[in-house]
Design brief:
This protein has 869 residues and is an alpha+beta fold. 41% of the residues lie in helices and 21% in strands. A hairpin with a 4-residue loop joins strand 25 and strand 26. It binds (3S)-3,7-diaminoheptanoic acid and zinc ion.
Length: 869
């Protein structure tokens, strides 16, 4: 591996050549697949620059220019490029090369795993298939011929429409043609044997689209939900965005070996089976919802990503931020908007804020990239979606859709930039987003300090907001952001006070807003209004505010915005823990908080919202407030708070649990909003009950009575995470029942990896020998090892055993699958935020990796940034 060098956004240059048409032929063979690639190439500039094609891990067989072999003097090949000297301005170039799919454990390019040939090209995997201009601004029409053994690989798939089928002895041939010009990263090929679920969708324009879902043999009973989700997504995109599907066929293939969630290849999505297969016995409610969301996400890319694509990879958020926003809206329109929003906020607070505070902090549109695969981040995706959401908040739904319409009209068929998107939004609405663009350019999480003063005489609230964004690597100075602040107000009684404004725009470093409202009628003479700030998490910022506990209790019970109600509960819990840590004492749950939780528990609010409010903030979110993360204190106080809450509310919790159980058992499992919400509350309560009820038999009984994976897993987790007397017995039962069912066993691995138990490191090590574990399969590594890195106390065990365990796995994966290795490495990047002893141990792992003779670029970039920060 030769060392890669970083690329800068500012250095973008339009391609010197374009490729109009490409014809690919694949003669599939496990060790020696032959690729014949014929490209129609046109010079763009006037200079006679050579044509430089990308290519990695390829064996060149021949090179032909307009029918003639290219002489050795006219081209050269390195391990990354093929350079052709020609002065022609338009020509046909045929490259023949061999690749080895069975040796490909990195799962990038064309690989063979479990008897299925499969591709993954985004971001720069196509260059591992053939020599090409492997960049997203080169759009070509693809025709793909696939030749393979008919019996072993009855299905031969690629992008677009099937235009020809043929047979040659034992082999068969399929020819696919994609009428839409596309960049190489959207190319896909799949060959294998599957069961197929077929359906059709009639577009609002009356066209019939064939839908095909390919799953491993025997899995048809787990495919229905994905198909329903696809049809829902197609309908939703027509109705909410006016975007209609364009090909005659839409195919989804579910595979076991896949580095990420799924891939939006034109007309042929490839999915990690985890986001397709689901039935009540094997999948939790959350799994079902995730399937819906990922199926939607990849489908929505057809317009935001495929029809309009990225000019260069620095613009990744153009398609990802926007498409995440769209999938979030899809889930919210079909399910519970509040629950979805709270889950999205949790992701930002526990993962994105951490990334923003670490050595790899980058703006949603990065300026410098060494390994592109490292930039498929929560920042580009989820913060990117928050930025789109802020545009939506500023413009409203109608204005946003006007902007979308103009964006699509202007740029359909093009490769464009984030700038083009923002300009379309501005032009369609006659607004100026000059300052708003800072969200694209600046990394880091803004901190907003809020001061609220009520002037009874004037019947006004003066709200002063100050923003400050800490420096991030390479960006010392930050300009103020344009921040939408949604606000509402309450009386201590809970009565809502109408305000003169509900959406404020903070643009200065410091700004005071005067809010008028119906204070006189709602407040007694000695009362103050309670202001709710950043309703619906209207901006991805951290809010600092001196707020009295009694005001938080009012917000928790009565804020009109459900996200703010939840947020108040989280602030209550967090402040109890932070105060205890600051005072070096053990957290003490007070009567008012208990009373508030009791009231909520017994209320008739949405059970899912009760569950979320009663769930303590996770360690990662709490850790975010510290420069030096107090591992032991956080763990101790979180555990104590959970036990105290469980003890204080044991009776009403048990009562509500029983009531929910009875309601749910009155009918069989249904994947339906109310039932999902009831299960969520019931299972949240179980996590508390396991703290105070040590009767093994009762838990075993709960386990035996479940008829769905949501409830089964809940009992397993509740016992495993509290070191309950029933835990080992249940873990064994689960193993016996589900061994061999890989996706189900992932839950079992994950449950144990997350247990805060002094022997978890050893347990994880031992589980790596389990017959269902394989280091070559990304899902297994994520569920056992990536999960383990989220286990605050055990990954950060003081003796460094957790670090060594994960460090060794990273070292192994460096050679076979660097993308997966790189994901695991993230856990080490915040090493500077731990105490000196842990810092030294974490740093040692980073240095050990740095010293490896062949460090993959994915790891090189993160290791270097971490050590130099
Ligand atoms: N676009 C793909 C992600 C590709 C990741 C490459 N390392 C999935 C998605 O965002 O829809
Ligand atoms: Zn995406």
């Amino acid at each position: 591996m030769s060392q890669k060098t970083a690329k800068y956004r500012k250095d973008y240059q339009a391609p010197a050549f374009t490729i109009e048409q490409v014809d690919l032929t694949f003669e599939l063979d496990p060790q020696q697949t032959r690729v014949t690639n014929t490209m129609v190439v046109t010079r763009q500039g006037t200079h006679d620059e050579p044509l430089v094609l990308d290519g990695e891990a390829l064996t060149l067989i021949s090179l032909t220019l307009d029918g003639d072999p290219v002489s050795a003097d006219d081209y050269s090949v390195t391990d990354q490029q093929l350079t052709l000297n020609t002065d022609k301005s338009r020509f046909t170039l045929t490259v023949v090369n061999d690749i080895n799919p069975s040796e490909n454990k990195a799962l990038e390019g064309l690989y063979l795993a479990q008897n299925t040939y499969c591709t993954q090209c985004e971001a720069e995997g196509f260059r591992r298939i053939t020599y090409y201009l492997d960049r997203p601004d080169v759009l070509a029409k693809f025709t793909t011929t696939v030749i393979a053994d008919k019996q072993q690989y009855p299905f031969l798939l690629s992008n677009g429409n099937l235009i020809k089928r043929d047979q040659q002895g034992d082999k068969h041939i399929a020819v696919w043609q994609d009428p839409f010009p596309k960049p190489s990263y959207l190319f896909a090929l799949v060959a294998g044997d599957f069961d197929v679920l077929r359906d059709t969708f009639t577009t609002c324009e009356g066209r019939t689209v064939e839908l095909e879902l390919f799953v491993d043999k025997g899995n048809l009973d787990r495919a229905e939900h994905a198909m329903t989700s696809l049809k829902n997504a197609m309908r939703w995109d027509e109705q909410r965005f006016g975007l209609v599907y364009d090909l005659d066929i839409y195919m989804i293939v579910a595979v076991d070996f896949f580095n990420m969630g799924a891939m939006e290849n034109k007309g042929l999505n490839v999915f990690n089976a985890k986001y397709v297969l689901a039935n009540p016995a094997t999948a939790t409610d959350q799994d079902f919802l995730n399937v819906e969301s990922v199926i939607g996400h990849e489908y929505f890319h057809n317009w935001t990503g495929n029809r309009i694509t990225c000019r260069d990879w620095f613009q990744l958020s153009l398609k990802e931020g926007l498409t995440v926003f769209r999938d979030q809206e899809f889930s919210s329109d079909l399910g519970s908007r509040a629950v979805n929003r709270i889950q999205d906020v949790k992701v930002i607070r526990s993962h994105q804020f951490t990334e923003d505070a670490g050595p790899m902090a980058h703006p949603i549109r990065p300026d410098k990239v060494l390994e592109m695969n490292n930039f498929y981040t929560v920042t580009v995706y989820n913060k990117g979606a928050e930025v789109i959401r802020m545009i939506h908040s500023l413009l409203g739904e109608a204005g946003f859709q006007k902007g979308m319409k103009l964006y699509v009209e202007r740029h359909d068929g093009q490769a464009v930039t984030c700038e083009d998107f923002v300009t379309a939004m501005e032009d369609a609405n006659g607004v100026d987003f000059t300052q708003f663009r800072n969200w694209y350019a600046q990394a880091g999480t803004p901190q907003v300090k809020a001061d609220v003063a009520y002037d009874r005489a004037k019947q006004q609230v003066r709200l002063t907001l100050r923003q400050h964004t800490p420096a991030t690597p390479g960006q010392d100075h930050k300009d103020p952001f344009h921040i939408p602040v949604k606000v509402s107000a309450l009386a201590p009684s809970g009565a809502v006070i109408e305000l003169s404004e509900s959406l404020l725009e903070l643009t200065e470093k410091e700004q005071t807003f005067v809010l008028n409202g119906d204070f006189a009628n709602k407040l007694a003479a000695d009362e103050q209004p309670v202001l709710s700030l950043f309703d619906d998490f209207s901006a991805p910022v951290k809010v600092e505010r001196d707020i009295r506990q009694q005001d938080l209790l009012v917000l928790m019970a009565h804020a009109p915005d459900p996200v703010s109600r939840w947020d108040a509960s989280q602030q209550l819990f967090a402040s109890l823990i932070h105060r205890a840590i600051a005072a070096q004492t053990t957290v003490k749950l007070d009567d008012d908080t208990v009373a508030a939780c009791r009231a909520l528990l017994q209320s008739d609010s949405d059970p899912a919202l009760i569950a979320l409010a009663l769930t303590l903030p996770n360690a990662a979110t709490l850790a975010d407030s510290y420069d030096e993360i107090p591992v032991e204190q956080l763990r101790h106080n979180l555990q104590q708070l959970k036990r105290q809450l469980a003890a204080a509310l044991a009776e009403p919790m048990q009562a509500r649990y029983d009531e929910l159980t009875e309601q749910l058992r009155s009918h069989s499992y249904q994947l339906e909003g109310r039932d999902i919400a009831m299960r969520q509350l019931r299972n949240t309560l179980l996590l508390y009950l396991a703290e105070v009820n040590t009767e093994a038999d009762w838990f075993v009984e709960q386990y035996q009575l479940t008829d769905n994976m949501t409830d089964t897993l809940a009992v397993l987790q509740a016992t495993a995470w509290t070191q309950h007397p029933a835990a080992e017995d249940l873990l064994q039962r689960f193993d016996q029942r589900w061994q061999g069912e890989k996706l189900v066993m992932d839950k079992w691995f994950q449950t144990q990896a997350l247990a805060d138990h002094e022997r978890t490191v050893e347990r994880v090590q031992q589980l790596m020998q389990h017959s269902d574990f394989s280091i070559d399969n990304p899902n297994r590594v994520y569920s056992l090892l990536a999960a383990f890195t989220q286990n605050l106390a055990q990954f950060h065990r003081a003796d460094g055993a957790g670090y060594r365990l994960v460090g060794e796995v990273i070292e192994r994966l460096n050679n076979s699958n660097p993308q997966v290795a790189s994901r695991l490495l993230s856990a080490f990047m915040s090493w500077k935020r731990y105490d000196p002893a842990r810092q030294a141990l974490m740093k040692q792992q980073l240095e050990q990796l740095q010293a490896l003779p062949k460090l993959a670029s994915d790891l090189q970039e993160k290791v270097e940034n971490s050590l130099s920060a």
